[in-house]
């Protein structure tokens, strides 16, 4: 009997205890960090008006309606997005932020009429121009290392020499707010878009105003130079994209109407592709000449988008909207996108093509059918408009 007891195996209770110990050991082992396709969303306490990517590092700046500026490092490793610092120096809504070309300085303008320059590494305010304009400032553009352009709510453009800290040019030719600005590679011609429905042309070398374009229906909300400097593209509040020939700024050479409530901001992806954000919360990819809606990279469902920005490596697009979220979208595939001149028949359901895994329709988004059906309602009209504007056919 004694020998039989010695040879007895472990009891059921002992086996259970052993399994529990093994499971605990497995749980105690460190799990590898989860790598995402894009960085996680960043939740804000207020609506973010403006975004800017650092030119060399994985850093994003955001300015909100309370006047606060935040600097984040972002990563595709889950849990690795970090707030580096925040600043509350602006007294009112921060309208625009922009990094210097070396990434060492962060410029910002505000409804409080001030221009601020901050040290990016230290997060400290270096320079403050308290009454840069007599009206709230809405637009900001770094022309080069020493030259800064600002535009205000009443259409005044100012050019600043940052070495001296004063404005060397102040011109008012717009009747409404300046929404956006762009400059050519030679730094000779500055373009402005305005709420009065015109595009302004300014000669920086001669420090003078050149001309205003013809009036368009609706506010011009954004301006970009594309097609290797041969075309200028403007977004508008009525959902139309206006195209100008370089040195033909007086009248549009083309126009392209989207089935969107507005085109509030545009960011070029390539010489021929741009991303356009709208009040309907959808970020569309648009081909310019041939004029096409290529698809969508993402959306803030039902929330107006305030700003989109492209990362320095061209991998991500960041967007901010009234849902108080900063979202990241994978746009790495866009440079390889080819748009044929041949127009294929549209699908009957009129769905926008999803160009990223997070775009609507790919994750069972409840509102995707509604958004897509809105697109479908006028796609035949949109195609007819495209065909009329696929070449430099002149203004209609």
From TrEMBL:
Compositionally biased residues, Acidic residues: 12-30, 377-396
CDD domains (alphabetical): WD40 (cd00200)
SMART domains associated with the record: WD40
Residue numbers spanned by region Disordered: 1-39, 362-396
Pfam family for this entry, one: WDR55
Taxonomy, superkingdom: Eukaryota
Keyword line: Nucleus, Repeat, rRNA processing, WD repeat
Keyword rRNA processing belongs to the record: yes
Main location: nucleus
InterPro entries in the record: WD40/YVTN_repeat-like_dom_sf, WD40_repeat_CS, WD40_repeat_dom_sf, WD40_rpt, WDR55, WDR55/POC1
GO terms for biological process, alphabetical: rRNA processing
Residues in WD repeats: 130-170, 305-332
Compositionally biased tracts (Basic and acidic residues): 1-11
GO CC entries: nucleolus
Alphabetical list of SUPFAM superfamilies matching this protein: WD40 repeat-like (SSF50978)
Subcellular location: Nucleus, Nucleolus
Alphabetical list of PROSITE patterns matching this protein: WD_REPEATS_1 (PS00678), WD_REPEATS_2 (PS50082)
Function: Nucleolar protein that acts as a modulator of rRNA synthesis. Plays a central role during organogenesis.
Family under the similarity heading: Belongs to the WD repeat WDR55 family.
Name of the protein: WD repeat-containing protein 55
Organism this protein belongs to: Electrophorus electricus
Gene: WDR55
